[in-house]
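Margin note from the TA: students keep mixing up input and output lines. Inputs are the sequences; the output is the structure of the whole complex. Example:
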Amino acid sequence: MATDITFEQVNYWYQAGTPFAVQALKNIDLQITPGSFTAVIGQTGSGKSTLIQHLNALLKPSSGTVKIGDRIINSETKNKRLKPLRKKVGIVFQFPENQLFEETVIKDIAFGPQNFGVSEADALVLAKRMAGEVGLDEALLKRSPFDLSGGQMRRAAIAGVLALEPEVLVLDEPTAGLDPRGRLEIMQLVTRLRQEQNLTIVLITHQMDDVANYANQVVVMGHGELIKQGTPREIFSDPKWLENHQLGLPSATKMAYELQQSGFSFKTMPLTVEELADQLTPQLSEGAISHE
Amino acid sequence: MAIIQVEHLNYQYSNSDTKAIDDVSFEIQAGDWVAIVGHNGSGKSTLAKLLIGLMAADSGKITIDGQELTPDSVWQIREKVGMVFQNPDNQFVGATVADDVAFGMENRAVDRDTMVAKVDQALKQVGMSAYKDREPANLSGGQKQRVALAGIIAIAPKILILDEATSMLDPRGRQEILAVIQQLKTDLNLTVLSITHDIDEAANADRLVVIDDGRFVEEATPDNVFNHGQQLIDMGLDVPLSEKLKDALQKRHIAVPQSYLDERGLIDWLRTSRLNK
């Protein structure tokens, strides 16, 4: 009973029906299949955050439909009975540490499930398990969430969403403001959750290296429209187009394009350092090969 | 001449068992760009707050432009220091870009004609003249940080402190803002102190000061620090792409140069080592 999410001709206006109406989404067609890892990229203000709020009906389309599993959401959908969707699709918003509020880390993580009718005792057991899942040390659980470091707070917030036991995990720039070690740890956590719990992942990010390393589907947003969709390899094969849309390349790909100017050739453009090294090695002269 | 002198600085938060800043000493020469690097929680931001007197050190001495930082001198010293924070939204007050740039001068009772001229000049220096009458809220992240910088330039500080000022920007926005700062540093002979864990920003500095657990670890040029490989991760920095690629090539039995190369340098080495068919 894996959850498919399908957008059909979705439009969304903020302040619809007023003189201040702004169209934030235009004719979006999109499918997110179970177990996939979708990266959503695009400039600030391109509609990324509006898009993900449609994934669990926090926003409803002004026109068009969003199908989440067997539920169809359109402009007529009543706010009743949307709760199960919020449990099925968990969203970790930007700077989620701002939403921590309980006295202790464990209570904070257990807050979500209790909202969905889980008993306090069961919620605490679940919370403890999820804290372990995200790699939060047990000694930290009795502390105030505000005593944690930035990376730890981020994990606590993710654990809080995981405690809802969602099938789809949506993350809005989960590594923003973290140092490189914190960033790597969060991305490794997301990858592990996907593999071990078979979670579907939707990630908003500005880090093209993360797109190259982790995603299997990329959605590019621009001015409220879905302007391109494909695998990372397809998206990063057109640097001109990316440049025109003020988007970058993964760092290894960027370097490969520069090496092309120096006479190197690449069968397919490398997306990672390992792929780049693989293709460079046979193109280097005998003198550069170590004979140790 | 040292424009910033820090001697045996100590600071401990009241709710903590360990010192956030532990006997830190260093000097920054006028006109230099120094980056303070360290992982999250290493004490970088605490150090910045002590330097501009937002918090008072438990012991030790800070001297800025020949003047010791004390409760009496703090206001005079802040006149010489401009600071740009991580999130420009927290720094905006004006209804238009021009109003916002003028704010710092209003606080300093600059007369109107001078102010108008200085706002225009500052916006020109950061390449934002066309946005003068726009609302700051509708700008991109990179543009917002430029406006924040213009506000600082308008009050002509001697020292610019950047507290993770590029961490919220996309790579393009970051490059833009670093280029603007580099230009300002030259034009105005600014001393720049940037607190960062971004490798590109650190690469722009003349020297790096590495802080860990509130202690001074080392001071060196970026090249010498970037040579540390995986240790860089513990310092709160990323490993530069050129070093990652060197590692990957070495694993494939390529005899790469041992010394640090930046991307340009590695591309040059690869070009000369290319097999000519």
